[in-house]
C-alpha cells in the first residue's frame, strides 16, 4: 500500500504558492488545500466565522490562530486516507504546533521571491472568486480578458493585493514565518527555493518531489514486505 504523503508550501503573498501547488497537485495527485481560499469562501458565505475573518483580511491582518485551526484541522481529519498539500497553513508557530500534534509533515517547501517581483505580480493578479483560479495578465492571462476560462464569470482583484496593503502583509509574513521555518528546518523537512520566476523554480521542486515520493513509496513497500 502506498504511504500517504503530506506536504505544505510557504512563502510571502504573491510568491507563487497557489501556482506551484496546482502544478504539484496535477503532477503528483496530492489534494490541494488552500487556506486563503477557504477563508474567502467563508467571507462570501457570510457565516459567523466569515464575518470575523473579513474584519481581519480587509485590514491585512492575520486571522486568529484559533479560527484558522478550527477551520483547517477538521477538514484534514476528514481526509485521513489521502495525500495532501497545504497552501497558506500553517502560517504561525501556534498553527504549526496544532498541526504537528495531529500530523507529521513529510516535506515543506519555502519560496523566497524578491519584493519587487512580488509587487509586480500582485498588482496584476486577477482571481475567479468562485473557484480561486488565479490569473496574471502577463504570466498566465485568461483566454478572454477579465473572464474566468472555465465558467466565463468575471474576474476580480483582491483589495489586499494593492501595494499599501502588500507592505503590511509582507511585514506580518516575515515576523510570523521565521519560527515556523525554524521548526521545519529543525525537523529536517524544509526545502527552500529562491528566484524571480516560477517556471525556473518549478523543475527543482518537481525533481525534489519525484525523489521524495518515490523514496517514500519504496520505503513503504519494504515495510510491507513479509
Ligand atoms: N510575472 C510572473 N507572474 C507569476 C509568476 N508566478 C506566478 N505569477 C503570478 O503571480 C501572482 C501570484 O501568484 P500566486 O500563485 O497567486 O501566489 P501566492 O499568493 O503565493 O499563492 C498570480 O497572478 C500568478 O499568476 C512568475 O514567475 N512570473
Ligand atoms: N494561515 C493563516 N493564518 C492567518 N491568516 C491567514 C492564513 N491564511 C490566510 N490568512 C489571511 O487571508 C489573507 C489571504 O491569504 P492568501 O490567499 O493565502 O494570500 P497570500 O498568500 O497572498 O497572503 C491573508 O492576508 C490573511 O489575512
List the helices and strands and how they pair.
Layout lengths: L5 E5 L6 H12 L2 E4 H11 L2 H10 L7 H13 L6 E4 L5 H8 L6 E6 L2 H9 L1 E3 L6 E3 L26 H24 L3 E5 L3 H27 L2
Parallel strand pairs: 1-3, 1-4, 2-3, 4-7
Antiparallel strand pairs: 5-6
Helix pairs in contact: 1-8, 2-3, 4-5
Bound molecules: guanosine-5'-diphosphate and adenosine-5'-diphosphate (ADP).
The site of adenosine-5'-diphosphate (ADP) has 19 residues, from helix 2 and helix 3.
Q: Could you write a compact summary of the structure shown?
A:
This protein has a domain at 6-116 and 176-218: P-loop containing nucleotide triphosphate hydrolases (Rossmann fold). It is built from eight helices and seven strands, in the order E-H-E-H-H-H-E-H-E-H-E-E-H-E-H.
CATH architecture of one domain: 3-Layer(aba) Sandwich
Overall pLDDT level: 90
Oligomerization state: single chain
Using the alpha-carbon principal axes, give the shape. Answer: globular
Strand order of the largest sheet: 2-3-1-4-7
For the record, what is the CATH homologous superfamily label of one domain? P-loop containing nucleotide triphosphate hydrolases
Q: Which CATH first-tier class of one domain would you pick?
A: Alpha Beta
Percent of residues in β-strands: 5-15%
**Which series of helices and strands comes N to C?**
EHEHHHEHEHEEHEH
CATH topology-level name of one domain: Rossmann fold
Uncertain stretches: none
Q: How many helices? A: 8
Q: In percent, how helical is the residue content?
A: 40-55%
Q: N-to-C terminal Cα separation, in Å? A: 13 Å
Largest sheet: 5 strands, parallel
Task: Give the strand tally.
Answer: 7
